[in-house]
Design brief:
Distance between the termini: 50 Å
Helix content: 40-55%
CATH architecture: 3-Layer(aba) Sandwich
Structural class: alpha/beta
Number of helices: 9
Order of helices and strands: EEEEHEHEHEEHEHEEHHEHH
CATH topology: Rossmann fold
CATH class: Alpha Beta
Amino acid sequence: MGARRPGGGTVSAGGGTVSAGGGTASREALVGPGRLAVVTGAGSGIGRATARTLRSRGMHVVALDVDGPAARAVAAETGGEAHQVDVSDGPAMEAAARAVVHEHGPPDVLVNNAGVGMTGRFLDTTDDDWRWILGINLGGVINGCRAFGPSMVAQGRGHVVNVSSGLAFTPRATEPAYVTTKAAVLALSQCLRADWGPCGVGVSAVCPGVIATAITSRTRFRGDRAAAESRARIRRLFARGHPPELVAGAVVDAVAGNRPVVPVGVEARVGWFLNGLVPARLVDRAARTSLLGI
C-alpha cells in the first residue's frame, strides 16, 4: 500500500470537518498535498482540466479514460498515473479500482466525469442510441460509484463529484436522451448524498452549462439535428462556451464546501434558480423553443 496520506481520518456526518491523526482541518484538506484523486474521462475537456487543477493543489491524480494515449498524456502532464478503461464496463471499472486502492488506498476525491452527447428527437433515436448513452453517461457514474464507493465509505472519508449538466433541470424536446441521463445522474447524486453523508463521504452533482470542449466529436446527431447546418451551429455554440477550467474550479468548490448541487455558467445557474419556480406550462413551452440559438 502506497504511503501517500497521514493516518486514517473521518468526516463528521454533516461533512464539516476532517479528522486525521487526531488533528482537525476543514474539508478543504480533502483537496491538498498527499491526497488521492481519481478522475474519469480525464483525457480531455473537463476531465483534463479537473486533473490539472487537482494536481495544482498537490493531489496525486489517477486519470481514467477509454482513450489510453490521452489518459497517459494527462498522467505525464500531472505526474500521476493512467488507466485505460471504458466506464460503461462494470468489471473493467472494478478491476481499475482494485488496482488503485491496492496501490494507494481509497480515493479522497472521485470525479465521475466521463460522458458523451446525443441530440435528436425521441422518435429519431434507436435502441442502440439509448443503450450507448445510458451505458456511458449514467452507467459510467454508477460503475464509478460501485467500484470506488465501498472503500471510501469503509474509510469514513472522501467526496464524490458526479458531473451532471445544466440540462438535467432544463427539458428540451430535441435532447431527450441526454437530458434523461443527466437528470438521472443528478437524482442518483442526491440519493447517494443522503446515503453516504452520515458515513463521512460527501456527494455533489456539478451541472455545467455550455462548456468549450470537444464533446461534439463524441455526440450522435439524429434526425434533422444531423443536418450539416445544425451540426455547424451546435459546434459554434460550444466553441464559444465557458472554459473547462471553470468546471474544474467548481469541482474543488463542491468538495471544499460539501455542496449538494453546483450549477456552472450563467445559463446553468439561471436554469437551477428557475427550476421548481416556473409553472409547468411554461417549462413545456420553453422545452419546445430554441435555446441559445440551437
